[in-house]
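assembly run, all chains below
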Amino acid sequence: MEHTTQLVPLNWYLLLSTFLFCLGVMGVLIRRNAIIILMCIELMLNSVNMLLVAFSSYSGNSDGQVFVFFIMVVAAAEVAVGLALLVSIYRNLGSTDIDLLNKLKW
Amino acid sequence: MNQLIFISLSTLTIVSALFMVFSRKPMYSVLSLIFCFFTVAGHYILLNAQFLAITHVIVYAGAIMVLFLFVVMLLNLNTVADQIKTMGFRVAAMIGAGMLFLVLLASLKSTTLGTFSFPEDNGMGMVEHVGMRLFTDYLLPFEISSILFLSAMIGAVLLAKKEKR
Amino acid sequence: MNTLIYTAGLGMVCLAMEILDLRKLLVPVILLGLAVIFGVNLMSWADSGPVIFAGLDMSSMLLVDHFSVAFNGVLIVAAAFLFAMSHDFYKDEQHHLSDYLTIIVFILCGAMVLTSYSNLVMMFLGIEIVSISLYILAGSRRHDLRSNEAGMKYFLMGSFASAVLLFGITLLYGASGSFKLTEIASYAATYGMDSPMFLVGSLLVVCAFLFKVAAVPFHFWSPDVYEGSPSLVTTLMATLVKVSFFAAFYRLMSSGFAGIDPHTSTILVIVAAATMIVGNLVALKQINFKRLLAYSGIAHAGYMLLAILSLKTNSASALLFYGATYILATIGAFAVALPVFSSTGKETIDAFDGLGRKKPFIAGMLTLSMLSLAGIPPLAGFLGKYYIFSEAIHNGYVAITLLAVITSIIGVYYYFKVILAMYTKAGEDTEIQFPMLYSIVGIICVALSILLGLWPGGLMGLL
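ok done. output:
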């Protein structure tokens, strides 16, 4: 069987990853629910992972794949902390809407 | 054949990601993001990163998204309606993200990707090779990431545990 | 390398002491441990061999050179001050004491990774260890909505910045095919300017760093987070963390991108100018002391960006000196402010009203710290500014240095606002409790500020 890296141009992966990344950016900007914002950040991290794997496979250099493991590690830690913060806010505020967080203003 | 698989997988990825961003109910968002992560795992298999694909499914769909599901259900967030910002803000955000996309695309398109050698399938994505790299060249970052986990673990317990009064 | 291992070990010891119920001994043991680590760090000064970890050569991950050893020394001293203050600051939260202190030890580990990385993987992990631990600490007052808000805001914006950083790193990897700083540098030297992918990647990484050091226009999180976090955490963010991010930024620019290309240099000049102007001008109308120091920290970030712009022989030592003086002055100010806040229950500048009459000695410490931050000779803050500005002029950045001088003169006004509040206003008759350890930390900081101002050679000649 022919190999993917010979049939699908790398540019396609660049296009897909960039699109997903920008979709994540837009989601972070338009959503008000903290949990959805967190999911949009996960989407951004995944687009990065996909691009890393693509670069790594196309160049035959496995550094990129190993880096993806570290990104997963960090994403897991980040989500654990983020959801803990979210739960503690929900206990005080009864909501996860970030527009209600307005105690600190210049 | 591979191109066809790529295109159909990508369509699924993009549609589920769009659904995640625009869905009004958090539960639908979580479910569509899980679906999106499965399609990303499909891309990994297509790219010959088999071990990574399995890990991705286990870590993202199995652990991270389950955590999200728990929180959504625990806090009963699914009843909360409409949490998208006002129209003006939405348009501004779309223009912003669209411009970012165009700028990134324009600069990336003009790059010549000549350095890529299209290697043979050499088992690079298999557990043997990845494990070898992880426990020799990348041993130090591997150990350092345990500090990160310890810190996050202490923090999660510190922040979310109910206090005995 | 040994410094890092011992620091991680110290974190484990803290956790073990919680299990063994030895909370009373926690702060002394940590201070003792930091003294040992400082000694180990000193011993690695002369050691220039490869970094060996578990029998493997890890030089491509971590590079112990004079730069990293010097910055580690400064960071260890800063951490020691913070731990000394934590004893009284967390007096009412004894049951969480070991959690907080362990997390701060781990932040020190992350900061050490940031000063000595030689691979983008390590840089990323270092940034994340520091940031994720700070999200926790910022939100650690669980029943205080302001602390919750600070933690959440910092978390959302910080993870967004991390995602941008990762996209940048990925593009750098795609262009150069490696995460090693040396290989990225050689790629940058050969093809850097012709590869849009490399340029965009480096731009994204620079943006993420500008966010982490709170430079305008990526500064908006910092006043809110500084104000809402517990005051000791604010001190930690303003001192140890900020300087370690600057060390990492400097390392990336000097050994990763092999000098600054004209595009990045233009961007950094504009950002530095905006940072100085916005930081100093917005600080003028602050009434909350922590917000005031947040904007002052933004302004100082603008001055430290000048050192990153210069990137020549002496700019590393100028950055080290500036970072050290900034840490000393800020910790000196907070060592006075923390007990005043907890006694008066206010965090505004008028909490200091009448302090000059009630506690002249302590008011004197705050005055000297403020003067050092403002850059009044003969204190060390003046020399720090002098070295950075002269480096910038040597490298041809005359206009921006002129702007820096003007803005730092404007800055004197808001530092004097605090001093005037202490000496000219009457204030209420609340008794101010001033525990011993705070005054020891304050005295040492002020004394070191004066010493460095009179004999700068000890620190300046290091790098």
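Residues 253 and 259 of chain C are 6 Å apart (CA to CA).

Chain C touches chain B through 43 residues (CB under 8 Å).

not gonna interpret more than that til we talk
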